[in-house]
Every structure is written in C-alpha cells, then in structure tokens.
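Me: I'm a chemist; would you kindly supply a protein sequence with its structure tokens?

Assistant:
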Amino acid sequence: MLSEQAAATVRATLPAVGAHLDEITERFYAGLFTARPELLRDLFNRGNQAAGTQRQALAGSIAAFATHLLEHPESRPDAMLARIAHKHASLGVTPEQYALVHEHLFAAIAGVLGEAVTPEVAAAWDEVYWLMANALVAIEKRLYEESGEPGWRNWEVVERVAETADVVTFRLRPADGGPVADFRAGQYVSVRAELPDGARQIRQYSLSGAPGSALRQISVKRVRDAGDTPDGEVSNHLHARVKEGDVLELSAPYGDLVLDDAADTPLLLASAGIGVTPMVAMLARLAETGHRAPVTVVHGDRSPADHALRADHEAYAGKLPDAAVHFWYERDATEGTRAGLVDLDAVDVPAGTRAYLCGPLPFMRAVRAGLLQKGVAASDIHYEVFGPDLWLSRA
C-alpha cells in the first residue's frame, strides 16, 4: 500500500496528472523510442503506436491503479494487473525493462508538469510506479515458471485453411519435434513475424483449436485500413506470405480469459467477428468435459460468409446437452438466425450465469450492459480485448 504521506500527495496531484496523462504518455514513448529504437521495431506494436491506442491504454492503467490505491488502500487491482502481466509475458518482457520505463516515464512527467513536480510529488508517484511494476514483475515471474515451454519456439505450419475471405487458420506443430504443452481454453499465443523491412513485430492470436491437441491452431483475421486504423502489418504478412511448410515463432500460451471447471455453472459465451476464436476453443473444452449446465452461445457478424469457424461454433455447441445458439448478421441473415446487431432482450439468461465476452469494445460494452440488466453479477462478466485494453481509459 502507499505510505500515508505519498497517499496524500497522490490524492492532491491525481487530477493534474490525470489531466495530462495523454501528453505524458506521448512524450514518454517518444523519448523511449528515441533512446531505444529497437523496442519500437521489435517489441511494441507499431500500428497501435501510430493510432495512439497504446498511449490511451497506458494512461488508463496508470490512472486506474493510482485511483485504486487511494480508494482501496488494503488491496490492489489484481484483475487489471493479471491482464497486463499475461500480455507482458507473451511479449517476453523482462524485469530490467521496468527500470528503463521508469526512467523515461518520469522524465516525461517532469517535462510536462515542470515545476509542479517537486521532490515530494516525484517521490509519491515513484511509490505508485514501483508498487505497480513490482507486482507485475512478480506475476510475470510466476507465469514464466508455469508456462511449461521456452520463451520463443519455432512452429511449422502443417495446414493453412481459408475460413472466410479475411480469416485464415494456421495449424502448427513444434519444429523441434518436442511435446506440446496444453493450454486453457480462451488463451492466446504471441506470434513474432519478421517483416520485409527487417522488423520483428509481435501480435497475439487466440488459440482456436481444442485444448489437448498435438497441434497449435490460430485463426488470423486480415486487418484492413479502416480510416482510423492502418492495415495490420502482421496479419497481412501472414495472409500474403505464410504457407504450409513455413516456420513461425510462437510464445507459450497466456491470457486470463479462461474457463472455470464448474460443470454446474450456467455459461454465456458472447462474441463478435474474430472474437469467435476463444469461444470456439471454450466450446470444444465444454463438449469434451460434458458440461451439464445451460450454455448460451451469442455471436454477431457482418454476414454468414464472414462468420469464421461457424461450422465448429455450431458443432461444438451441438454436442452439449443444454445449449442455445443465437447468431445475428448485419446482412444476409438466414433461417434460424437474426438480422441486425446482437440484442440480448429476447435471450433467456439463466440465474447464476457466468459470462465470457470477446469482440470489439462497443459490442462488449453493449452486451455487458444487457447482462447487468438481466441480473448477471458484474464479477461474473469476463472479457478479452484484442489490442490495447481501452476498457478502463474509456470507462
């Protein structure tokens, strides 16, 4: 917890720091990448940096952590920390890098706030930073120890399947012929791809195959320029250049959006677009274990033709004794599906339901609001965000 003196200083300065966090994080990244350009080339997502979403996520996490320390001094926001730690572990972040971040972050704070950063203010925010950093280092150390696989490993593509016009599934086996550690349904791996300019960019993709398989399976959606976001460097590279027989570098599986093994708990699995990938893995796991309680499957997509892994989505749900499937399509809805956007008003949600969400942030916010209205406890609604987690920064 924060010391009494630091807590008082952080409370007094949080409004000023919070008001300038976007400027602070922009200056922080500029200074960091000037000093260490290889971090932008080989660690940080260049697309997220260009779009500014990584700055928003960092600002949101700092503000949320500081606020939690003030409002709940006897605890820490473990759910937020675990989410960040899993992402860091998938990237191979090291304890030494936290000192580097500290150096450039505090230089940015001083540069933006100027004389307002007195020694007392600097010391108080230093406490905040190291409380957060040391907690993350400890969680990441445990994750590395539990992963069961080396940090980066070469995997051979043994099959490439076009799921839709913009989604390709890659099935992979270890290039070294070694064993495949199991994963928990809902987890993801990082893929490190060498791009034509020599950069080795890293992206996360959910494991879309069934746990327990001798192969890894990822399903990659090609990210196209949407005006506010550029073409996805890695997704387009994988679509255009990676074929059967090629080798990809993968991390061990990470991610905290995972199924609990309570066979008597009603579940709701809600996805949109490529958010279907972890949900298919979850359904495969539920089918394998013979989950007895009701399972509500909700998915929204642009059209049936854009619904990746639809056959698996339906097949695994069909193996469950008590499953209800609801698909919405913005166009070309077919018999047994619904037209438009996902709307939970007409969906029965059993009491005691635990919900898992994955998809664009507006979709998840809408589904979460609908679930809360139906009496689902906030603590029973879990989510996964592809890319920087902007849930807190836009709350």
Notes: The chain is about 40% helix and 20% strand.
